[in-house]
Amino acid sequence: MPPILSVRAVAKTYKNGFTALRAVDLAIEKGEIFALLGPNGAGKTTLISIVCGTVTMTSGQVLVDGHDIARDYRAARSRIGLVPQEIALDIFATVWNTVSFSRGLFGKRPNPAYIESLLRDLSLWDKRNSRVIELSGGMKRRVMIAKALSHEPDILFLDEPTAGVDVGLRRDMWTLVRKLRDKGVTVILTTHYIEEAEEMADRVGVIDDGRLLLVEETTHLMRKLGKRRLTLALQHPMEAIPPELAGWSLELEADGQHLVYSFDANAEDTGIPTLLRRLGEKGIDFKDLDTSRSSLEDIFVSLVERAA
Amino acid sequence: MSGPFLNGAGMWAIYRTEMARMRRTIWQSVATPVITTVLYFIVFGGAIGSRIQHVGGVGYGAFIVPGLIMLTLLTQSISNASIGIYFPKFTKTIFEILSAPLSFTEAVFAYVGAAATKSILLALIILATATFFVPVRILHPGWMVAFLLLTAIAFSLFGFIVGIWAENFEQLAIIPALVVTPLTFLGGAFYSIDMLPQPWQTINLLNPVVYLISGFRWSFYGTGDIGVGTSLAFTAAFMAICVALLWWIFRTGYRLKP
Ligand SMILES: Nc1ncnc2c1ncn2[C@@H]1O[C@H](COP(=O)(O)OP(=O)(O)O)[C@@H](O)[C@H]1O
Ligand SMILES: [Mg+2]
After folding, report:
1. Which of A9, A231, B43, B90 could be disulfide-bonded to A60 (CB atoms 3.0-4.6 Å)?
2. Chain A residues bordering chain B (beta-carbon distance below 8 Å)
3. CB pairs under 8 A between A and B
4. What range(s) does the ABC transporter domain occupy (chain A) (predicted)?
């Protein structure tokens, strides 16, 4: 099956001369949940804005379900729903009117029954006659989602959907995303939280500095990148790692006060119990221990190193 | 290729929303021009007019009616259309218009259509108000409607451009204040331009508003400073310039898309 979204060598240099995207290639399959993962300023918003038609590309080509977004923009855009990073609403309009407006704007005939079910799904039904100005921030975000879904798009873009969002909305949003996927809707979201990508996405694309560094199935990526660090705060600082511990990938940090063990969290045998036993035998005492996941930064560093 | 269909529903959605936005401010929209017009009648028509008597065979009060209607039509067309497009830019809701399967032309038609509708409605209200003060005749109603439509559309197009150009509220207000009001006052709303001293009379021939008011007045009373053909040609030329500018905006994405 041809991809529902195909991005070919898309580059973007803004008018001030800043290059936000460098020849990005990406193919998204129909019905998948795809996470675009990258730090702030990586180019995530730029990429989805180009696909949605709100930013012009400098060069490249984008096909949505086979339709070129430049030549055949009507067909391309009518398949897309976009929830941008920031809330932007006509605050004087009522919830019902602004959601119906979006449906009309995308060329669809009115369908009150569909809008009703949409508003119910997003817990907005009771607020349908309220003006947007009367709603809380979370409710406004729900309205943004309802507007994006009002014309029954095949592809939904969610730009940083959980940034500054409360737990309830986050949960509802993921329920909704799964429901959409079950209906065959493709969902593309951006995030700078690795946990979010892991939790939601079938595949993850890692983007940094305008470059798509890799695209992987989430489970593969997590296996690859699922390194954790066990940090032992030692009673007595160490000068060097004793040869008896050479079997573990250990490092000394904080002037020898911390012994750090990097291990594969997904492995059957993490090697931790034997390490701790060996430390006991050697009389190496520690006062505290802590485990942490490799941060997004660590991951980027390792990816960039690998790419080089 | 712009695709297989015309997005009528999309245009209608914008048009309706724009009209609804105008309804929300109906009292300001109607009250301001009506009060202003009544004041003009009292001051110009009553106080000054009693000394002027007749201009080109028409009573002074009746003479200023077409000019006053044009004044409202111009300022309202520009302000409605410029706010119509500036507001979504300001609230950032324009992303939705830009991401919709709607051509630029369709968006312009919807916004400009709504702005022109409202300014024409107001112009008709002013006309109705005027009939309370002075006897108004309309010799060429067909031409009157044509001038009304053409002017409302041309200046709504112009307002749309102003709204795209403006980056803040000051810039939005400056064009009507700095350009339109002076041109209208110099344009013969309250006098026949041959009453102006030279060289202003000649300089004023570069003022597009002169042609609009003259043509419009001709449709009422059959007399004008300038031939009706020239008036029409000038209005059409102004419209063509606006359309060309909009075409350029569309090609370059000027101030709409980064
Ligand atoms: N309109 C613009 N003009 C100039 N630079 C921009 C513009 N929009 C974004 N950028 C820059 O492009 C880079 C990528 O931005 P963005 O796509 O928003 O990143 P992300 O969404 O991944 O945080 C950033 O460095 C940002 O400052
Ligand atoms: Mg972003």
Report:
1. A9
2. 14-15, 52-56, 71-78, 80, 82, 84, 86, 88-93, 97, 100-109, 147
3. 92
4. 5-234
